[in-house]
Amino acid sequence: MSGDSDCTRTSPSAGSPSDNEFLPDRPKYVCSLSPDLITKAREELQEKPEWRLRDVQALRDMVCKDYPSLGTCLDDAFLLRFLRARKFDYDRALQLLVNYHTCRRSWPEVFNNLKPSAIKPVLESGFVTVLPRLDPEGRHVVCIRPDRWTPSNYPITENIRAIYLTLEKLIQSEETQVNGIVILADYKGVSLSKASHFGPFVAKKVIGILQDGFPIRIKAVNIINEPRIFKGIFAIIKPFLKEKIANRFFLHGCDLNSLHQNIPPVILPEEYGGTSGKLDISAWNELLLASEEDFLRDFSQLVLPCDSSPHDMLVSGDADEKQCDDSLRGMKPQLYYCY
C-alpha cells in the first residue's frame, strides 16, 4: 500500500464514488476512552469528541496535499496518536508525523527488520520492561536497566530497538495516548566503558525520536542509583533536551524515599523499595513477543517512498555525524573527570 494510493483513496476530490467503490474501507474508529479520560483529553489535549473525526480528516487532507509520497498509514486511530501528542494542533501534528517517518528512514541500524523476535536477547536480559501496575495518574512505568546490557553481546542499537518497540506497543492504547508514560532508569553499575557507547551522535538521534519523532507524552524520567559518571552522560544529553523535558528529569541517587515521592511503593518492585513483589520481566516479554504479527502488519503500512525529500530529514547525514563526533571528543574528558 503506497502513500499515493492512500491519498487518492481519501482525498475528497479524488475521483467519483464509482471510481472508489471497490477500494476497501478504512477501519472505523471506536473510542475506548472512559468518560473521565474523555474529560481529561478535552481539558489537557483540546480534544473535542464531537470534532474528533473532523480533526483526523483535516490532518489526513494535509498529509495528502503536502506529503503525498510519505507512505504512511492514514487510519483514524493511527492519526489520532499524533493529534493527541500535539494537543490537536494540525501543523505540529503533521510535523510530528513527518518526523516519525524521517527518524525511521534515517537510522536503518535501528529500524530495519524491526520486530519483537529480533530483539529477544535484549528482552531476556531485562534491559527494558514495563511494570505491571499503572501509577496513580494511569500511566505505565517503563523500567530501563543499563547494567543488564553486555556490550560484547550486541551493539547499543539493539537496546534502542527494544525501547522503541516497547513504546510502539504502549502507544496502541488510547489511555496511554492521553495519560502519557513515566520512565524509571536504574543506572546502578554503569561503568565508563559502557557509558562511552552513548555518545552525542547516538544521544541526538534518541532524543530526536523521543522529543520530536514519536507520538508519546513522556511525563517524567526518574533516574535512580546514578553513579558519578552520570554527570558526564547527562552533559551529553542535556544540550539536545527541550526545557520542558529537561525539567521532567528527577535524579534520586540512592534515595528511595525521594523516588517514592514520584512513584508510589505500591506499584514498585522490591528492588526499588516497593511492595509489589520481585521485578518480573516475563509478562511484558510474553506480551511483546505475542504481538509479532501485529507489528509486521502495522509496519507494512509504513512504506518507504522512492522519492524521499532531503529537506524533510531531521538528520543531515555525514555533516551531522562529523559534528557529533567532534562533540564526543569534547565530552570524553568530562566522562573521565566524573568517573
Describe the structure.
The protein has 339 residues and is of the alpha/beta class. The protein has 2 domains: 35-106, N-terminal domain of phosphatidylinositol transfer protein sec14p (Helicase, Ruva Protein, domain 3), CATH 1.10.8; 113-291, 3-Layer(aba) Sandwich (Phosphatidylinositol Transfer Protein Sec14p). It is 50% helix and 7% strand. The chain is built from 18 helices and 5 strands. The protein has helices at residues 3-10, 17-20, 35-45, 52-66, 76-85, 90-106, 108-111, 120-125, 156-170, 174-179, 192-195, 200-212, 229-237, 243-246, 256-262, 282-289, 292-300, 318-338; strands spanning 128-130, 140-144, 181-186, 218-224, 249-251. Strands 1-2-3-4-5 form a 5-stranded mixed β-sheet, sandwiched between helices. Helix 1 packs across helix 4 (52-66), helix 5 crosses helix 6 (90-106) and helix 6 (90-106) runs antiparallel to helix 12 (200-212). The protein is globular, with a radius of gyration of 21 Å. Residues 1-5, 8-23 and 306-339 have low confidence and may be disordered.
Short description:
The chain has helices spanning about 5-10, 15-20, 35-45, 50-65, 75-85, 90-105, 110, 120-125, 155-170, 175-180, 190-195, 200-210, 230-235, 245, 255-260, 280-290, 290-300, 320-339, and strands spanning about 130, 140-145, 180-185, 220-225, 250.
Low-confidence stretches: 1-5, 8-23, 306-339
Strand content: 5-15%
Helix/strand/pairing class, anyone? alpha/beta
The order of strands across the largest sheet is 1-2-3-4-5
Give the beta-strand count: 5
CATH topology of the largest domain: Phosphatidylinositol Transfer Protein Sec14p
CATH class of the largest domain: Alpha Beta
In round numbers, the mean pLDDT is: 85
The CATH superfamily of the largest domain turns out to be: CRAL-TRIO lipid binding domain
Main sheet summary? 5 strands, mixed
Q: What's the number of structural domains?
A: 2
- Total DSSP helices: 18
Tell me the distance between the termini.
51 Å
Indicate the radius of gyration in whole angstroms. 21 Å
Shape-level CATH architecture of the largest domain: 3-Layer(aba) Sandwich
Q: What percent of the residues sit in helical stretches (DSSP H or I)?
A: 40-55%
Q: Return the string of H and E elements.
A: HHHHHHHHEEHHEHHEHHEHHHH
